Amino acid sequence: MASYYQRITVLLNPRAGKQDATLARQVADAFRAAGAEVDVRLAKGPALAREAADAVRRGSDVVVAGGGDGTVSTAAGALAGTGVPLGVLPLGTLNHFAKDLGIPLDLGDAARVIVAGRTQTVDVGEVNGRLFVNNASVGMYARLIAERAAMQRIGRGKWVAHGLATLRVFRRYQRLRVEVRTATDDAGRSDEVGRTVVRTPFVFVGNNAYQLSGLELGGRKDLTGGRLQVCMAPGMSRGGVAKMIIAAVFADICTLEGFESFTASAVGLDARVGRLQASIDGEPVTLDNPLTFRSRPQALRVIVP
Questions:
Q1: Is residue 15's pLDDT more than 90?
Q2: What is the pTM of this model?
Q3: What is the pLDDT of residues 121-149, one digit of tens each?
Q4: DSSP line for 58-99
Q5: Is 40 left (phi over 0), alpha (psi -120 to 50) or beta?
Q6: Is 63 left (phi over 0), alpha (psi -120 to 50) or beta?
Q7: Got the DSSP string for 152-169?
Q8: CA–CA distance from 117 to each of 23, 32, 34, 62, 107 (Å)?
Q9: d(Cα 20, Cα 1) in Å, to the nearest integer?
Q10: How far is CA 245 from CA 13, 165, 192, in A?
Q11: d(CA 134, CA 73)
Q12: Is 153 exposed, middle or buried (CB count within 10 Å of its CB: 0-12, 13-18, 19+)?
């Protein structure tokens, strides 16, 4: 079978030691079996964004991101608006974006999807110029991600680090005082339709609407709605947040007292501080306050089954 695309660049997030070379060979073999020769490159963080942009300049027909949601998000940031499609190899832990696109989790199956080359355009979100494919947040989850990353840097395994970070964040429970502005323009300024000041443990902003209960918790059925979903919990106590997490498995958390969720095309957050700790697609970042979120409808071309 011949590849629909002639020039495919695959960007892999490096792992530890000899695993890098092994993974690169496995990826190249998977694409070869699917009928395509690919250029496999290892890169992470800012280097990955540069490699993705360079691949576009070199004339690659498709750029593939191999890794978790953070890797995919970084590559998407370089490709959005260019028309060059993004292929996704779900090599991370949770792979939320790949699942929402219907990408198979098996390496060989995912390679065959990319080689087949059916594309569609999907929305992305943006905060202060930084793109996200899944979500961005401030408050508890952002602190948890930062704590987890710090523990991993000193050698903790990911899940051990995650558990310890969760305990630490709950022990230091804080609510963030933030002014929330909703607007109908894409800059979060004009055509203002709402303004409120809340004290909330978190503000979560999703790229389109998330499932908020049961087996589909955290998934999205539509990536083309052109909307942001905003979730917060004004005044909710530490016990209330714990109850919310448990209830999400069995019921709709939107019915819990103190939980709020709404959609908008643009949202502004002002915490009256210089900079804010945030999470973008599961990666810790620090952003200048205030934060301006907007939806960029159909800005990213992706390869789907």
A1: no
A2: 0.88
A3: 999 999 999 999 999 999 888 888 878 87
A4: TT-SEEEEEESHHHHHHHHHHHTTT-PPEEEEE-SSS-HHHH
A5: beta
A6: beta
A7: HHTT--HHHHHHHHHHHH
A8: 23, 15, 12, 9, 16
A9: 28
A10: 31, 16, 32
A11: 8
A12: exposed
Token readout for 50 is 């540069």
Q: Angle at the Cα of 264 (from 194 to 233), degrees rounded to 5? A: 70
Strand partners, 2: none
Pairing status of strand 283-288 against strand 135-139: unpaired
d(CA 121, CA 180): 29
Model confidence at 250, pLDDT cuts 50, 70, 90, reads low
The three-state secondary structure class of 205 is strand
pLDDT over 70 (residue 188): no
Listed in sequence order, the DSSP H helices in 117-254 are 140-153, 158-171, 238-250
What token pair was written down for 115? 């080689």
Average pLDDT along the chain: 87
First-to-final CA distance of the chain: 17
Which domains, and CATH codes, for the chain?
A: 8-117 (3.40.50.10330), 130-297 (2.60.200.40)
pLDDT at 17: 47
What region, left, alpha or beta, does residue 45 occupy, with left being phi > 0 and alpha being psi -120 to 50 degrees?
A: left
Q: Are 237 and 166 in contact (CB under 8 A)?
A: no
Query: Token pair for residue 164?
Result: 């310890």
H/E segment holding residue 103: none
3-state helix, strand, coil in the chain (%, to 5): 35, 35, 35
